[in-house]
Amino acid sequence: MTRTRATRPPSTSTPPPAPAPPVRTYGRGRPARRLAATAAVLLAGAVLATGCEPVEVTGGTSASPVPVPGSATGAATAQPSSSPRTPTRTPSAARTSDDKPSASSAPSAPAASHSAPAPSPSAPALMGIGSEGARVRELQARLRQAGHFARNPTGYYGTLTATAVEAFQRERGLAVTGRTDSLTWQRLLAATRTPTASELDPPTERPVAAPDPRCLKGRVLCISKESRTLAWMIDGRVVSVMDVRFGSEYTPTREGVFSVYWKSRHHVSTLYGSAMPYAMFFSGGQAVHYSADFAARGYGGASHGCVNVRDEKKISALYAQVKDGDKVVIYH
């Protein structure tokens, strides 16, 4: 009898699934996905704590990466969302000091079809702020004749003179620059007459005060705070007079009888760094000296305690005559 080998019928059951790969964990068994979510929350909190603006995410699963301070991606500027709800703000750094948009932040303007014509170049200036001398004195005297300069000539072209020139230019329909060009000068010459000697070089702006009795003997710089004048006197005779101004209430000019103890022609203040030409020291650091600021601004300012003279020509002559030891009297 023939033996037959029994064969197993084919299995119809599904083979068991392959085992799932193990989930990688970090730290104390925290799944990587949970760690990533936790890191994202902590990262967003760190961004808010450092003042960065969060980027608004609208729908979808992809979002712009959040910049991390101090990292390579944090150094880049995050791009704002395309959502229309995100406002656009102009950075304050793009504005100038007068709160007008600077050229870099202002939108480019279309080409104007009716642009204003460029102003014609003005004539070269004959005199301007900082000029001084006899010609400036004549300018001021003529401006005073024309009713635009309410002071005596000083020979210094300061802001007050520039304002007077502007007024004259405006009145005559000229370019208003505050500088005296050849056209302005010619119009002023035609509108005024030649100034007299007293108009060009008046003694003082205000009447000279009666001298203090202590000024009547010897060589004296007799200085009145009431009239704001200085009279150079020799044995009771007035040789010359000039306008002066004094220190403020915080740095007052001392009163009393003093004497000149040091002269310095080109002196510069060691305290304030300002020029003190023709300085004649009489009490500590206080001196009689020429002041360009006084010449330009008048009595609108004050000294730091010195006696300022605004007429350089007069104080130059005075400096040449005064000697060490001459008396200085300052009174009300």
Note down, in words, how this protein is organized.
- There is one protein chain.
- With about 325 residues, this protein is α+β, with helices and mostly antiparallel strands.
- Helix content is about 20%, strand content about 20%.
- The protein has 7 helices and 13 strands.
- The strands form 3 sheets. Strands 8-13-5-6-7-12-11-10-9 form a 9-stranded mixed β-sheet. The chain has a two-stranded antiparallel sheet with strand order 1-2.
- The longest helix is centred in the N-terminal third of the chain and has 18 residues, at about 30-50.
- The radius of gyration is 43 Å and the shape is elongated.
- Mean pLDDT is about 75; it is low at about 25-30 and about 40-120.
How many beta-strand segments? 13
Average pLDDT taken over every residue: 76
> Could you give the order of the helices and strands?
EEHEHHEHHEEEEEEEHEHE
The CA-CA distance between the termini, in Å, is 160 Å
Give the class from helix and strand content and strand pairing.
alpha+beta
Portion in beta strands: 15-25%
What's the Cα radius of gyration?
43 Å
- The percent of residues in helical segments reads 10-25%
Largest sheet: 9 strands, mixed
Which strand order does the major sheet show? 8-13-5-6-7-12-11-10-9
Uncertain runs: 23-31, 41-120
Shape: elongated
Alpha plus pi helix count: 7
Task: Draw up the topology in text.
Elements: E1 25-26, E2 30-31, H1 32-49, E3 125-127, H2 134-145, H3 159-171, E4 180-181, H4 182-191, H5 197-200, E5 219-224, E6 229-234, E7 237-245, E8 256-259, E9 262-268, E10 275-283, E11 286-290, H6 292-297, E12 307-309, H7 312-321, E13 327-331
Parallel strand pairs: 5-13, 11-12
Antiparallel strand pairs: 1-2, 3-4, 5-6, 6-7, 7-12, 8-13, 9-10, 10-11
